[in-house]
Structures are given as C-alpha cells and as structure tokens.
Amino acid sequence: MTAYLAAEDLSMFGRDPWWLVVIKAVFCFAFLMVTVLFSIVWERKVVAWMQLRIGPNRHGPWGMLQSLADGIKLMLKEDVIVKRADKVVYVLAPIVAAIPAFMAIAVIPFGPAGNEVSIFGQRTTMQLTDLPIAMLYILAVASVGIYGIVLAGWSSGSTYPLLGGLRSCAQMISYEIAMGAAFASVFLYSGSMSTSAIVEAQQDRWFVILLPVSFLIYIVTMVGETNRAPFDMPESEGDLVGGFNTEYSSIKFAMFMLAEYVNMVTVSAVSVTLFLGGWRAPWPISTFWEGANHGWWPMLWFVVKVQLLLFFFIWLRGTLPRVRYDQLMKLGWKVLIPVSVVWLMLVATVRTLRNENYAFSEIALYVGGAVLVLLLLSFVADMFRNRQEAQDKPAEPAAFDPMAGGFPVPPLPGQTLPPVPRRRPRRERELIVSGGSDTDSDGSSSGREASDG
Asked: A GO CC term (predicted)?
C-alpha cells in the first residue's frame, strides 16, 4: 500500500493554460453527449433485434440520427407548466438532475497521467483534472442529482409525482450505501482515492480479479442508481402513472432522460476505472504490443470498455422484467448492504495481514477458519431456532372482521375471509324478478296440476 501511496503524484495536473482547460472540458461534454446519442439508437436497435423487430430506420443512414431527431422534437414541443406547481423549483429541478451527471466525468482518466499527449503543441494529460479524493467527489456529485428527482416530484403539486419522487429517492439512497462500501474495498487495495492512482495500481492485475464481490455489488448498484431495468421504478406506469416526471413536458422532460443516459455513461466509466483497468489495454493485446498503452491508444480501450458496459445495460433491459418495489428495497437493504459490509471487513483483514508480512497460505488459513466458524455458529443458531418453533404451538388466528372500522380491509397472513353466502342460480333470480315460481320444482308441479285439471 505504501508503494501505491508514493506513486500518487498529481503535480502534472493544474498546469494547463486556460484555453486548453476549456478544450478538455468541451471534449468531456461532447464525449458524453455523443455517447448518449449513440447509446439511445444502439439500445433501440439491440432491443429491436432481440424482439425480432426492425427498430429505427428512417432518420439518417441506418436510423443513426433517430435520437437527434427525438431531441429536436422534444425541444419544439409545447412547454407546459402546471398551475399548482412551484414554478422556480419546477424549472430548476431538471437542471439540478442533469448538471451533476456531467460533473463526474471531470476526474475520469482517458489515458495515463505520465503519458502526455500534444494538443496544438501543448503537452497535457488525457484527463481534465484529478484530486486526492476524486472518488469522494464522484459520490458527492452523484448524491446531488437525487435532489433534482425529489424536487421535481414535490414541485409538481400533484400526488403521483410526489410518490414517484419519494420512492426514487429511497431507491437511489439505499443503493448508494452498498456502492460506497464497494468503493472502500478498492481504496484499501489501491491505497488512494485518486482515479489516476487507482488505475496505476491495476498495472499487474485488474481489481475485477482481486475484488470480484465488490465488482458484482457495484454492477447491481449502478443499475439501481441509474433507475434502469429491472429497477426502473419511475417508469412503472401501472403503479404511479409516470413517476416523478409525470407533469413535465418538452425540454424539461428531455433533460431528465438526458440525465439518465449520462448517468449510465458516468457509472460505466467509473466501473471501468475502478475494476476493469481503466485505459489499459486488455490482457492479450498488452502482452505482445508494447505501445498499446501509449499515445492516443488508451482512449480507444477506455471507450470500448464503456461501450461493453452500456451494452450490458441494454441486455438487461431486453431480458429481465421489472421487479416489485418491495423486492427492490429488500435486495438493497437486506442483501447488498450486509454482503458489502462483510466483504469490506474481509478485505480489510486480508490487507492488514498482508501489511504485517503474513504469507498467503497463512492468510487463507485464517480467513477460511473464520468463515467456517461463522457458518457453524449460524447452523447451530438455526437448529435451536427451528427446535423452539417446533415446540411452540401455533396460536389460533384471531377472528377476522372484513368491515373493521367501517371500511373493507384485506385479511392479514393467517386470517381468512368469512364464507360468502351461496347465491341463487341466475335462472331462479330471473323467475323471482318476473313473478314466476321460486324453484324449478315448484314450476314443474304447478304445470302438472294445470294439465290434470
């Protein structure tokens, strides 16, 4: 860890002239916008291919300008502002949701910090800037975007957007906790929170190999953080009409969609930086080509990895159905957070033993023994609990009153509805209403009496 800390040299940042900083900032913005435009078309094409459809094929060659046409259409549509809305907050909410999505890309490295490239004769790094706490900066700006969703639901002055905004906020907050724990495991192995130092720490081995559980936790949390399928609760029209953006139209609605897709690109870039070697070339290429990680080539490897993760988003959307909200929150609070905390403690233990110069065999023995002890204790606790439950007699369910409080209520677990009185057959009801006999037998007997007379 000390070697990685010593390698954290950020002196090459902050030396660019102002015009070069502007160029790099415009490049980061253009990279996100172009990637979003391509991702929308790519998503529609891939999902259409999965569902045996054609997909967009009208605007531009092979329909590649479809997303640009959709953006222009949304800009030209009528901009409606709800009467009961808080107009200032109503207008600012899409901006608050969109701007933080663009800010995180500022600290993502597109190439090695020590390998400077030439732009108009000026040597510079392939990264806008870097910070000793760059990953905390990413978490901070990501959390600010939640305010845009909450304020959008509240400022609309309607019930359904408020409910959609609240549950979207709860979803994003709950998944950020597990995401932070996954980040902490990377910090322990790299010894730094700087994005460029984290990529440098993966020179020998990518963290997806060293920290596979952290990678899987982050993959799940980044899908929940971006409100994508199967966790797209804001778009569950059957529950809440349309979620927090129900009352939005025109360019403001487009900004929410833009923020969602930009967040997809951002979380994919963060995943590449933390776990997939960042700008480094994949293993087969880096072994036989020495110049694969020099010049402008690192940007190509970075973009390819980001596109593969975007395809993973699209694949999930075309494969998995939407989960229920209770399943979503149960996964976040009862599965991901405990697993991420236990895994973080395990990683911290291993790093501490490595710093104390313990051999790998000894570390594996200690960790394996601790895991076996925990499993044994869990087995014993479950055995005693099952025995106790078997001894206790099940309590008689309380009598269920479906009209408790004067309103019909559904039964709780263990309760049953009272039997419904059997209704007369339809033919009997028609006879009674028309003044006929009460039963078929009465009708048949009266008919026989008439014939005898």
From this structure: plasma membrane
